[in-house]
Amino acid sequence: MSEIPIRLAEPRDAATIGRIYDEGIDSRIATFAAGDHPADERRRWLAGRPESAPVYCATDGGDDVLGWSALAPFSHREWYAGVAEYTVYVSAGQQGRGVGSALLSHLIGVAPEFGYWKLVGMILPENGPGLALARRHGFRVVGTHMGHGRIAHQWRDVTLVERHLEVSPW
Ligand SMILES: CC(C)(COP(=O)(O)OP(=O)(O)OC[C@H]1O[C@@H](n2cnc3c(N)ncnc32)[C@H](O)[C@@H]1OP(=O)(O)O)[C@@H](O)C(=O)NCCC(=O)NCCS
């Protein structure tokens, strides 16, 4: 797929973003999040994000959202202000067609506009596609936190990846 349109998420996207996130929850390799999240909660989540935590949608050029991405400050500590955690989710039926790649490329491009000079990702070691996507975009594996959180009562590890951006002062 070439030229995948990407735009800022709008309030009307909250339900679709939530549906795609639910697929990740159900896979048990994408996120530590669990449970049901009512539509209201999804809307509040999207509306309540600060300017430093934008959400984007990849579309089919029309109304259909194929996937979404987000940046969020890595930490509330001021000395980490240049570091953001990225998130990329692609609808199950749209995976393997370059949508995730387009979303992550786009995040790498826009992150400096928000003052970020480094991106990190937290990926479960079992998440082959998530790690492949990160490596494809120049992220290096920092290491794996052991027993970092629980999914369905089971302790799970999480692998930290990082990439400095072009603007990095480091
Ligand atoms: C990870 C995810 C975003 C990838 O999105 P995608 O649209 O399927 O990925 P793309 O088609 O753009 O592929 C990106 C790269 O990853 C590789 N990749 C994707 N799926 C893969 C798989 N199942 N196995 C191995 N490599 C895979 C591709 O080969 C591609 O690399 P290449 O360009 O060198 O060929 C998608 O699987 C997803 O939404 N997963 C659930 C959410 C998640 O785990 N997010 C990651 C943590 S934030």
Topology diagram in text:
Elements lengths: L5 E3 L5 H14 L11 H9 L7 E5 L5 E9 L9 E8 L8 H12 L7 E6 L4 H9 L3 E12 L2 E11 L6
Parallel strand pairs: 4-5
Antiparallel strand pairs: 1-2, 2-3, 3-4, 5-7, 6-7
Bound molecules: coenzyme A.
Coenzyme A binds next to strand 4, helix 3, strand 5 and helix 4.
Bound molecules: coenzyme A
How many E-type strands?
Answer: 7
Number of helices: 4
Spans of at least 5 consecutive residues with low confidence = none
CATH superfamily: Gcn5-related N-acetyltransferase (GNAT)
Strand order of the largest sheet: 1-2-3-4-5-7-6
CATH architecture: 3-Layer(aba) Sandwich
Q: What would CATH call the class?
A: Alpha Beta
Q: The CATH topology is what?
A: Aminopeptidase
Spell the H/E element sequence. Answer: EHHEEEHEHEE
Q: Note the overall shape.
A: globular
How many domains?
A: 1
For the termini, the CA-CA separation is 35 Å
How would you characterize this protein structure?
The chain has 170 residues and is α+β, with helices and mostly antiparallel strands. The protein has one domain (6-164): Gcn5-related N-acetyltransferase (GNAT) (Aminopeptidase), CATH 3.40.630.30. Helix content is 26%, strand content 32%. It is built from four helices and seven strands; from the N terminus they run βααβββαβαββ. The chain has helices at 14-27, 39-47, 99-110, 128-136, and strands spanning 6-8, 55-59, 65-73, 83-90, 118-123, 140-151, 154-164. Strands 1-2-3-4-5-7-6 form a seven-stranded mixed sheet. Strand 2 and strand 3 (65-73) form a beta hairpin. Helix 1 crosses helix 2. The longest helix is centred in the N-terminal third of the chain and has 14 residues, at 14-27. The radius of gyration is 15 Å and the shape is globular. The mean pLDDT is 96. Residues 24, 30, 87-90, 95-101, 121, 123, 127-130, 132-133, 136 line the site of coenzyme A.
